[in-house]
Structures are given as C-alpha cells and as structure tokens.
Amino acid sequence: MKQCEFCKETFVPAVKKTRFCSKTCANRSRYQKALAAPPDEYRECQGCGESFPVRYRCGQKSKVVCNPNCMAKLKYKRKKAGLPTKTNANHTNWGDIGYGNRKREQAMAKLIPGPTALEEALWA
C-alpha cells in the first residue's frame, strides 16, 4: 500500500515506483508544479492592456488575454468591427473560421482596404 503524492489516498501500485493513484492525479500534480514555476514571459492583455504572465508548460503559448472577462470584451470588440472572433493572431486560413464568402470578403476588406473611388477613376 502506498499513499498518493497528490490526493493523499492510499492505493495498491501496479509497479513499485508508482507515485500517484491515477493519471488524473499525476497530471494535476504536473500542472501545479508548472504553475509554481516562474512565468516564461509577460504579455500585454488585448482586452484591458495590463501585463499578465504566460507559462508555456501549462498550455498558454497562444494566450492573448489575462482572464475570461477580457476574452469576452475582445470578442465583442472584434464582432462589432466585423472581424473574426478567433483571437489567434497567427490564424490565416479564413475558410476554417466558418464564415461564408460574403462575410469573409467584408472582414478582409476591413483588414486590407481596397482602392478608393478616386484611385479607381485614376487607374481607369
């Protein structure tokens, strides 16, 4: 009989060197250890503008906001501007977002403005 290092329950290990009673306890222990480590970098939140820590070991590589409230604010701003609500800045495959052609063209037009009426008249 052994005691789990995470939840402190007693269990019968299948292998002598087993430290945790389940994979769940092992994963939770690993995650807590990663959270206790110093952050890998600090980023500016796209929702509120404050600095927040990012830990790569906790699956936070693509994190752009500090909390769920800021995520909701950012999605609202992007939706109001007609932009995709996906917040990953590296996302370039517009077909995966789920917009039809018209909405995709409208969003692209806001990101990359086309020629004005005056420019079109000059080129004609």
Search tags:
single chain; 4 helices; alpha+beta; 4 strands; two-stranded antiparallel sheet; elongated; 36% helix; 124 residues
Q: How can the largest sheet be summarized?
A: 2 strands, antiparallel
Which term fits the overall shape?
elongated
Biggest sheet, strands in spatial order? 1-2
Q: Spans with pLDDT under 50 lasting ≥5 residues?
A: none
Would you mind describing this structure in some detail?
- There is one protein chain.
- The chain folds into 2 domains: 2-36, no CATH class; 41-87 and 98-111, no CATH class.
- By secondary structure, it is of the alpha+beta class.
- Helix content is 36%, strand content 10%.
- 4% of the residues are buried.
- The longest helix is centred in the first third of the chain and has 14 residues, at 23-36.
